Amino acid sequence: MTLDQLRPYVSRFLDPFVKGFDRVGMTPDGVSVLAFFMAVLAAVAFLLGGRADPIWYVGAAVLVFLNGWLDIVDGALAREQEVASAGGDLLDHVLDRYADIVVIGGLAAGIGDYLLGFLAVTGVVMTSYLGTQAQAVGLDRVYGGLVGRADRLAIIGVVGFLAYPFSGTYGELSLIGWLLVFLAAVGHLTALQRFFYSWRALE
User: Fold this and answer.
1) Which element (helix H / strand E) includes 173?
2) What distance in Å separates the CA atoms of residue 109 and residue 10, rounded to the nearest whole number?
3) 74, burial (CB in 10 Å: exposed 0-12, middle 13-18, buried 19+)
4) What are phi and psi of 147, to 5 degrees?
5) Which end of the chain is more exposed for a tag (fewer CB within 10 A), N or C?
């Protein structure tokens, strides 16, 4: 079970944020763009955490959690304003994929391990692709598997906080390096899970 499946249960916690954004005239698309901006800032902070001072990892973690939270709020705001649309859904998913790419790019650039970054980002992108491709072939959108986007952001955020006090190396890699290994492994495994689930559902 992934955290994505808990979205319906957090709706009551969204109300103050949704109403606040609505009062200031923010649109759902604007919230999606703001969420992406948080991801870009997180990537920069992860880069600085690896190359300058590990304290930047704390800021990166906070920004990752903000990205994830705003990614939930934009959909709720669209429903509140009754402006949910296919175009808004498209923008949200495109910005989410770019957010995933830039955050993992920042993690990899900070420690200078671009091979791990490549493996992690391809796993993450394929996980998301298989989730929406199932919908494209007539099934429901697939959120299941080992790790969904909400789980991934939560893990990246927690490891970001831990990377400041535990900034040494563990075996051959730093904590951020091991995070990239984890993202690569579970990303591709989750993508395969979603593929085989969809394949069986189509038989």
Assistant:
1) strand 173-174
2) 34
3) buried
4) -140, 120
5) C
